[in-house]
């Protein structure tokens, strides 16, 4: 998600391909709509929406909803920037804030004016020029905290994910296509401890369990829900349709398209 971390230009939503949110992300949907999934709920962002996406969360953006007319402006607030900001601008007492991965931001005229103000400072490529980047970055955060001071509870919490139960977390997030080190980090473990604890809980290696879990879910969706393979492979954590079809046939002895045809034709 924008590894540079600085006020990216209006860009196709499909450019947000990473499913692990490493830094807090400000997101403004300039046009179109975008369906998102955070492991607990699915909802649709509409043109004109502003959101803060929490760091250390798993989030998926549906590429099927990100058509040519879907554009956004976004930037990351990384920890070095936030620590420097907090030294310069004391944020006062932190207040409770929703724990959702996506936190809705107030659509005020101030923030709308800020988005418009970026125009003169953009390079031909669309990003904010380096000379003004830090200033605009700071201005954006000042605006957000002015209207929603409770965001400080999210932004200035520098703690790492604590150790949590594996069974519930993995059964909720197995569809996300992220690496084992990511899963280990999000459950508060080193990679070796994650693998050891995983074996104790599921009696399988994480890699084998993830593939089997995704394929079992795929079989249910094809067999019972009559979903199309092309509509489910991405949501189940497979990088492409051919990889999904190969793994499915290797597991069940029949290609997903053939299984679907059998079920829908009554064979």
UniProtKB/TrEMBL annotation:
Domain HTH araC/xylS-type: 164-262
Pfam families for the chain: ExsA_N, HTH_18
Keywords from the UniProt entry: DNA-binding, Transcription, Transcription regulation
PROSITE patterns: HTH_ARAC_FAMILY_2
Alphabetized GO MF terms: DNA-binding transcription factor activity; sequence-specific DNA binding
Domain of life: Bacteria
SUPFAM superfamilies assigned: Homeodomain-like, RmlC-like cupins
Classification via PANTHER family: ARAC FAMILY TRANSCRIPTIONAL REGULATOR, HTH-TYPE TRANSCRIPTIONAL ACTIVATOR RHAS-RELATED
Name under which the protein is recorded: HTH araC/xylS-type domain-containing protein
Provenance organism: Hymenobacter coccineus
């Amino acid at each position: 998600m924008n590894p540079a971390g600085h006020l990216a230009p209006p860009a196709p939503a499909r450019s947000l391909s990473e499913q692990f949110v490493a830094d807090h992300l400000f997101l403004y949907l300039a046009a179109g709509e975008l369906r998102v999934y955070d492991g607990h709920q699915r909802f649709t962002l509409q043109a004109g929406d502003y959101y803060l996406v929490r760091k250390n969360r798993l989030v998926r953006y549906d590429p099927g909803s990100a058509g040519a007319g879907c554009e956004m402006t976004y930037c990351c607030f990384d920890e070095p920037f936030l620590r420097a900001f907090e030294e310069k601008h004391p944020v006062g007492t932190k207040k409770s804030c929703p724990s959702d991965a996506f936190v809705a931001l107030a659509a005020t005229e101030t923030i709308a004016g800020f988005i418009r103000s970026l125009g003169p400072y953009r390079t031909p490529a669309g990003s904010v020029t380096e000379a003004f980047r830090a200033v605009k970055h700071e201005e954006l955060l000042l605006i957000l905290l002015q209207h929603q001071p409770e965001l400080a509870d999210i932004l200035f919490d520098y703690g790492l994910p604590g150790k949590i139960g594996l069974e519930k977390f993995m059964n909720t997030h197995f569809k996300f296509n992220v690496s084992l080190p990511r899963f280990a980090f999000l459950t508060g473990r080193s990679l070796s401890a994650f693998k050891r604890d995983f074996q104790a809980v599921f009696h399988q290696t994480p890699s084998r369990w993830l593939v089997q879990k995704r394929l079992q879910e795929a079989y249910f969706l094809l067999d019972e829900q009559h979903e199309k393979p092309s509509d489910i492979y991405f949501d189940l954590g497979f990088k492409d349709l051919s990889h999904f079809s190969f793994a499915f046939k290797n597991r069940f002895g029949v290609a997903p398209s053939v299984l679907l045809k059998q079920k829908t034709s009554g064979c």
